[in-house]
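Working notes for the structural subgroup meeting. M.R. asked for a predicted model of this chain before we commit to crystallization trials. I am recording the input and output together here so anyone reviewing the notebook later can reproduce the run.

Input as submitted:
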Amino acid sequence: MATISDQLKRGRIQWTLAVGAFFALFSSHAGALETVNLALSNKNFQMILYPIAQERGYMQEEGIDLRIILARAELSVQATMAGSFQFNMAGNMAVVNIMKGGAPFKVILSTNDKVLSWILSKPEITTLKELKGKRVATSGVANVTLIMAKQVMLKHGIDPDRDINFINTGGGSNGVRALLAGAVDGVVASTAERYIGIPAGLRELSFIGNEVKNSWGTMATTDQLIQEKPKLVAGMMKASLKALRFIRNQRDATITVAMKFAAR
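Returned structure, recorded in token form:
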């Protein structure tokens, strides 16, 4: 007959084995994470889904070890086709251009149903028509945001190619800072630039998202990845949607992540 001491010893052994099995299972699960490279072309507001998905553990829940890498849109698309990136956020124009050439490429997710861009001006300019003959800052003379801004101008009676002098100030907040300094008269502004410019007294002439139908924050990948790793693609989308839900419900925490992301 087993003594109480024997029973306690067996209990300790069983507990030790159970704990060991748990940690072995945990280690096995953690080691099963698949490294995924995501190319971002900028640090615009809609891109903070991915730092949030990292920090909140949403990617890990889907078996993904996410690596966020900044890369030029055109180069990131080519690198995704070559397998260096599994997913990219190059934007609609870069993706459409390569798909027009017959490349096996697909958009799998859009985070916004409106374009998050604005046309801002000096406070003394009150309508888009008053931008005729003026200088307008842009982050690139051939990017999709400028193309859509030109569409808005055409709707308001402006020939942007003839009437506007577009100044390429590069990315970040260079455009809105040039406007605040008086170096230009207007800017095609991102979300971050709008939140700098409006409190500083700049005028919002147009919200492009209300005037041009387009999706924004598009994630794309190759047909090959979709066919060969459907679980990975689904997991990437699920983690992204969890992060989007977090953004909707946790405003202050989202702002904190956005500030950290922009400062990297």
